[in-house]
Amino acid sequence: QVQLVESGGGSVQAGGSLKLSCAASGYHFNGCGMAWYRQAPGKEREVVSTISSTGITSYADSVKGRFTISRDNAERTLYLQMNSLKTEDTAVYYCSASCPITGNYWGQGTQVTVSS
Q1: Which helix (H) or strand (E) holds 75?
Q2: 99 neighbors 30 (Cβ within 8 angstroms)
Q3: Span 51-94, pLDDT tens digits
Q4: Phi-psi map region of 108: left, alpha, beta (phi>0 left; psi -120 to 50 alpha)
Q5: How many CA atoms lie within 13 A of 109 on its CB side?
């Protein structure tokens, strides 16, 4: 059974930092691209950052220079280091896997709240 379990969310003041983790199980983690998405209240879900199976990364313009995505294949874990957080980063953050043949998987999400 595929599971993606996010952790590390919480409440922080603007300018602060959080590190999200996503523990994966039940599929071939190493062979799948991974991503972080977020959804703010009243808005559509948007991609924040992606990392391919070979480690190539991409970022939304709104988080470039502030967020860093990484993966530990041995630990089957995806990370998102978030620095210089802004109130507009407030959202539920989701971990996602994109796998050849088997398709996409999603976690349940973790809430990040940034206050001014």
Answers
A1: none
A2: no
A3: 999 999 999 999 999 999 999 999 999 999 999 999 999 999 99
A4: alpha
A5: 12
